[in-house]
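Posted in: Protein Modeling Q&A

I'm a second-year student putting together a small comparison for a lab meeting, and my supervisor asked me to include a predicted structure for Alanine racemase. I've never done this before, so apologies if this is the wrong subforum. The sequence is pasted below exactly as I got it from our records. If anyone can share the structure token output, I'd also love a short note on what stands out.
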Amino acid sequence: MVTATLRPSTVLVNETVILHNVAHALARLDAGTELFAVVKADAYGHGLLRVARVAEKAGATGFCVAVLDEALALRQAHFTQPILVLGLIEPQYAPVAAANHISVPVASAAWLEAALPLLTSEKLPPLAIHLAIDTGMGRIGFQTIAQMQDALAVIGKQPECFDVAGIFTHFSTADEKDTAYFEMQARRFNAFTAALPKRPRYVHVSNSATSLWHAACNGNMIRFGVAMYGLNPSGHAIPEVPYALEPALSLVSQIVFCKQVHQGDAISYGATYRASGDEFIGTVPMGYADGWLRRMQGFHVLIDGQFCEIVGRVCMDQFMVRMPKAYPAGTPVVLVGQSGDQSISLQDVADYSDTIHYEIACSLAARLPRQSVAPIE
Ligand SMILES: *Cc1c(COP(=O)(O)O)cnc(C)c1O
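Accepted answer (user: helix_wrangler)
Welcome! Here is the predicted structure, written out as tokens:
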């Protein structure tokens, strides 16, 4: 992927804000409870290595990623902390994980059976595994204690190949006001941990939402994701948070072309927008190939502290806005962030496009360069 560094469209990442968000979360944890920074999907679009470095400085003692390649990228950048891959890997890659001291989830005895011969045949450290328990998320994990015990029996055949380093589950409703389903999942998880012959080093259930609103359940490690980036995991559902979440990401560009159009003049593909009189139209060099989706037509950006409507269809690499006056090429455009007294949040963008801020942040393409603001040290 080519990153467009010679174009003014840029994702700005405020490192100091991330540092504070992590520090606030850590301050609420019981002594001995660790925070693993969830940096999957290029740190939710914020930049994997930059965020990992800031999280480490803030006191994160490990990382969670989605896929093995992300874990290897951290190892290549010389991060030595524990790394947990959250998604299942194929058994054939178990030796790669072991060799790089990367922990992986296990959700079946069959997976262990398939990985076992690959781990004995090489001079490898034991593969660190975390038992994934499906308490109601319905995604990955053991559904019954019997299934988990079958897996432990496979491990028992050659215990030197595996290190049972953790047990975990994932809540599906931790960001909702009604806690009944959450409590059911927590009860189920407790039954699984009680059935283990030995408590592993890491017992963890908390994503950001759980850490914010169900802190009693934290176990001895939290998987801290979206709140590190300053986003409320619930969207609007639970506005009350124990500490202020400050968004770390802004998205900026510049006007590259300005023109005046007259009544009836059309803008962009399909000629869906017609000027209703004399209007100033600015062109912004970003489009759906950058993750600024077509459905953003009719939304707005900020120019000089004023909301300007996105008019006409968003193109692959450019879109147009209606401006209150002629703003020349080079005028700053804020798509997400602050301009004058006004601001646009990722949540606003998500609301307009009928999705969640997680999806907007992750959709920002690799073509957009990431630039640090307020860098730490
Ligand atoms: C992505 C993920 C997290 C982090 O969730 P946030 O809501 O971003 O805090 C935690 N645990 C698992 C299993 C995940 O997949």
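A couple of things worth pointing out for your meeting: The CA atoms of residues 9 and 253 lie 4 Å apart. The longest strand covers residues 162-169.
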